[in-house]
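My current task is to audit a protein record that another person submitted. Please read both lines and tell me whether the tokens look consistent with the sequence. Do not assume that whoever made the record got everything right. I have pasted the whole thing underneath without changing anything:

===
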Amino acid sequence: MSLTADEVKNIAYLARIQIDASDSENYAKDLSSILDFVAQMNAVDTENVPPMAHPLDLPQRLRPDEVTEENQRELFQSIAPAVEAGLYLVPKVIE
């Protein structure tokens, strides 16, 4: 896919990005090469390729799911302006 300088200017306007008129040809060439590369990647047959989260087959390093802090809800709610049934009450801002 080949972009023109006018299309790049329109894209820049829509993105609210200011570019110099002298650079629009270079941007058009660079963006066109990126779009061509994406089209080339889309042409690859990935039907039998399983999805993966990481290119290396490594286990995730996860920390144990343990409680590390004590529950301080009563302490925090004791200094809150308004609390009811364990919930913080806030003023209504949308009618």
Notes: The mean pLDDT is 91. The chain is about 35% helix and 5% strand. Helices lie at 5-14, 24-42, 73-78. The longest strand covers residues 83-84.
